[in-house]
Every structure is written in C-alpha cells, then in structure tokens.
Amino acid sequence: MLYYALVFLIVALIAGVLGVSGVAAVASQIAWVLFVIAIVLFIVHLVTGRRRVL
Fold it and tell me: How many domains does the chain have?
C-alpha cells in the first residue's frame, strides 16, 4: 500500500514539474488516500495482531 502511495507521489511530482497540474493534483490525492489507508491498516494490525499466550 505504501509502495503505491510512493509511486503516485512520484508521478505527481513529475507531472507538477512538467506543468500538467490536473494530473499532478489527481495523483497527489490518490497518494494521500493510499497513505491514510495504509496507516489505518497498520494501526488495525497492531491492535488486533497475534499475541503470544504463555
């Protein structure tokens, strides 16, 4: 998930440098959403992860 967020962020940066502001805006929004989803899934994994029973 974080990999795809990073890919969209790089696409947004390249599009911004090239002057394609529409593509840059959409790619940066997609990157932000994927990053938030990844953080939420990580927190859920930490809370509900396997616990060792002694």
Answer: 1
